[in-house]
Amino acid sequence: MAFPASLAALLLMAATQDLDPLVVDEKAGQVTFGAKTLKTDVHPQLKGAIEYLITMRGGKSYESCFETGPLDALKLYLGLQKIGAVPGKPAAEGKPAEGCKLRITVEWKDGDKARKEPIESFIHDDTTQKPMEKVQWIFAGSKGGYIPEIDAEGLLVISTKNLMGLYQGDPTPLITNPTPLMTGNRYKVNKAILPKEGTPVKIIIEVAK
Amino acid sequence: MKTLIRSLAAAALLAWAAMPLPAYVEAVMPLAQVLNESTVIVEGTVDMHDAQKKIATIKTGKSIKGKCTYETIRITYGGGQFWHPEAIPKHLVKGAPVVMFYNDARQSQCYLNRFFFQLYGDPNAPPDKAWWSMTHIEIRMNRTYNGPAPALSELVSNVLSGKAKPPAPAAKIPPMELAHVKALPSHGEPVDETKLPLPFRTYDPNAKADAAPVAVDGEGFLQRWIVLGPIPMGALAADHNAALNKEWLPGQKTIKPGQHDKVKVEGQDLRWEVGTSSEWVLDLGSTENSVTLSVAYVVSDADVPDAALLTGSDDSAAWWLNGQEVQRFVGGRAAGKDQERTAKPVALKKGVNMLVAAVINGSGPTQCCARFVDKANQPLKVRSGAEAPKQ
């Protein structure tokens, strides 16, 4: 059984290297970057519960839908500002997260067919037993602090490597869910739509109009 | 050969052991499970702590299971969740012993002083460059173990060598709150076992938890309750409405229970216990087809004639305020904030108000939450307790 698993891992690694880089298109008002779909149900006892939508390599990818290729979180933060998104604040002291509202979509190839869906479509909401309702995501901008990897103050997302969160209890993702839940087990992967593990996708972020 | 080694290494990366790392470890987790799901268990000591930068290092020592390839484990806790970055610095004392548990994917629990905290690292980062991020203290894993770290190290060694059996979890130990972690003596400070906060003491069925009313959280959610259950619903499992109409205890709607008061319900001997919300939600276990009674002594500093009660529940629930039913939900769902709101204003009187909830669980978790807001929808800064305030 080890061989197929290792082969899958190598294919995944290769897929990661081929992912689209970060592109900031000010004219189109879009920030885009590549990611790949992650393995679901890594821990059976979590019963599919996830905390994040997009993580970087080294982040909590076992509780996420998509993992980016090599990506500079600070460049993403600055890129979002270049398309007009103003960062706000993560949730703190009983106040929910605030910031510019974003629309985020995911593009991928399903065989020969190009598909595009809002990123929330990939989340199953256990409360409603339906895919997560359409939302505009909050550019909270990550809490700041000391980043040991660069020996400087900065955005803690650089250290935690979780770009997009589903719960506001984590103050470090750049982008968070507008539903002001601090923690929980409400969100799962919507397996009906998530492409198979390792599928390359393009994440497209725009300021919500 | 290189290809084979690369393949095996990659396979190891994929072979994520089933160490459970959700928001919190909610299930009662036996130590045996922690041991099984860790590929490496290593002793260590806190070597450096910089409270300004919110970083610390652990110098590793003897590997108890597997082989630790890190001489130093570097921790950053500034990005931790909730109140946890505030609670942990007191305990990151140079020389404090720790026990690290991790798997191939560098999902980890670190045992420091008398509590576990969750960390995750990057398996691809070189050991001398890797930083591990703390997410939170495991507020409920004190049920797995809550003694001193050196004793855990010895226990783990003995279990793994077959000299001892892993202890069963102590399911009734209450979860940790910020105040508990702050009150826990740090490494090197004198420890009086009888005065430790309850979450860190050996479980004593007769020890009483803090019951006095405490402030609500920032959003107004009640934090402290007194709880009875689970009560098996029997034939009423099929009819939640009827179950909510039933008085499971005489005078249930106006009951004023005391900690450890004993009652017999549906042929079962039960006892009222203090319940503590985790952030906004009160966890009441997960017994299928059961009803649990949750009571809060709600203390208001003023008369509020036009408040609203906002609740959430998993699953059905009925709520009585000062003896009057003010809200009911019948159905199955996960608990969320503010799922229900009283249709008409409710009155809170100055002093103690009794809020009683009957929460039914069909399957999955049993949970509820409640907060009061004023007519401007602002959270009321009441207090809630498992007893009335002492005069």
In short, what is this structure?
With 209 residues, chain A is α+β, with helices and mostly antiparallel strands. Chain A has three helices and 15 strands. An eight-stranded mixed beta barrel of chain A has the order 2-4-3-12-13-9-5-15. A three-stranded antiparallel β-sheet of chain A has the order 8-7-14, with no helix packed on it. In chain A, strands 10-11 form a two-stranded antiparallel sheet.
Architecture overview:
The complex is a heterodimer of chains A (209) and B (391). Chain A has 209 residues and is an alpha+beta fold. In chain A, 14% of the residues lie in helices and 33% in strands. Chain A has three helices and 15 strands. Chain A has helices at residues 2-17, 73-82, 157-160; strands spanning 23-25, 30-37, 52-55, 66-68, 100-110, 113-118, 123-125, 130-131, 137-139, 144-147, 152-155, 162-165, 175-176, 187-189, 200-207. In chain A, the strands form three sheets. Chain A has an eight-stranded mixed beta barrel. Chain A is globular and about 40 Å long. By secondary structure, chain B is mainly β. Chain B contains six helices and 22 strands. Chain B has helices spanning 2-14, 31-37, 84-87, 149-160, 178-183, 240-245; strands at residues 40-50, 55-65, 72-76, 97-102, 107-112, 115-120, 131-137, 214-215, 224-232, 262-265, 268-271, 273-276, 282-283, 290-300, 304-314, 317-321, 324-329, 340-341, 346-348, 351-361, 367-373, 383-385. In chain B, the strands form four sheets. In chain B, strands 8, 9, 12, 14, 16, 17, 20 and 22 form an eight-stranded antiparallel beta sheet that branches. Chain B has a seven-stranded mixed barrel with strand order 1-2-3-7-6-5-4. In chain B, strands 13, 15, 18, 19 and 21 form a five-stranded antiparallel beta sheet that branches. In chain B, a hairpin with a 2-residue loop joins strand 5 and strand 6 (115-120). The longest helix of chain B has 13 residues, at 2-14. At the A-B interface, helix 1, strand 10 and helix 3 of A face helix 1 and strand 7 of B.
